[in-house]
Amino acid sequence: MKNSIIILCFFICGLMLGLTKFLPDILIENNLSMYVLYILLFVIGIGIGADTKVLKVIKESNIKIILVPLCVVIGSLSGAAAISLFLTDISPKEAMAVGAGFGYYSLSSVLITEINGETLGTIALLANILREILTLLATPIFVKYFGKLAGIAAGGATSMDTTLPIISEYSGKEWAIISIFSGFVLTILVPILVPFILTPF
Amino acid sequence: MIELLAIMFLGMVLGYFLRNHSKFIHVSNKLGIIIIYLLLFVLGISVGLNETIISKIDTIGLKALIITIGSLIGSLIFAYITYKLFFVPKHEK
After folding, report:
1. Interface predicted TM-score of the whole assembly (ipTM), two decimals
2. Using only C-alpha atoms, what is the Rg of chain A?
């Protein structure tokens, strides 16, 4: 929660600065962000590769844990696509790309901004921050009505870190391993699925 | 967009081999956080400069909420089915 507030602060500070319009052209006409995005993906890759916790989980667990991130992917994408039918100017494809952020708001919003533009990027930022916040607030209710996997599924990519404490409290400590695994798989899938969904063939 | 994946994969290989160099990993993680702050700040600037987005910021927030609810409900339904089919201990069925 603390992290999402800091991120939102940076976004809002930028927003305020943009609103004043007192900006040097060099900041406005930037084509640097693509290269910065490359560096970001590289360091995210380093973090994932260095995370041995997950290798241990895979060695110790049953093959069926792969079903957990899989059901989150299918559920998030189909749910987003279905509800986009009620939105006039968002195509199912765009909604699916936002849903494919799985709560990983920082990466999904910059990726979507780069591929599709600022409007959908802003929607992705807000939607995925909301996903994390709603998971933190409503996991007790989700678990009560949708079973022990509910918090993990709602948390998406955040179930390996920010929402892990609340998940292990309400589903039980024995679910923490599955939670870490699912969050890890979904974290890797964000930069794979988002461009895949948005890039025309 | 394949280059995005190639770059992340290179990072993963490097991270795996340097996984015990905790100082390197720490610096790399910190750099990631700083870049995210920077990119979100820049995104904020371009949104602030974009009058079309600013004029409909309230509907953008509502759309974000609607999409979140859609993906949450979808995930919860599939999680419930998966849980009932594969994760409930046999004797509790």
Report:
1. 0.89
2. 18
